[in-house]
Amino acid sequence: DAIMSVKCLLVEPQGSHQVIVFKINDKIVKLVISGETKIKSGDTFFINFKQEKILFFDYESHEEI
Predict the structure, then answer these.
(1) Mind listing the pLDDT tens digit for each residue in 28-44?
(2) Distance from the CA of 51 to the CA of which of 11, 25, 31, 32 falls in 20 to 30 A?
(3) CB 19 within 8 A of CB 30
(4) Global pTM?
């Protein structure tokens, strides 16, 4: 598992879920989470994830890398 602290740049509400935008090493990352989670732009929060469960997509083709 990996744990890191990140700062929320933007919250995009999508109904039952929301997209949280933040940066890791100057790269924009978007995280889809439950719409019930209370995170606001400017909040710092911790993410904990299993590295084998992460999916990366090419920005232009939208295909999984």
Answers:
(1) 999 999 999 999 999 99
(2) 11
(3) yes
(4) 0.74
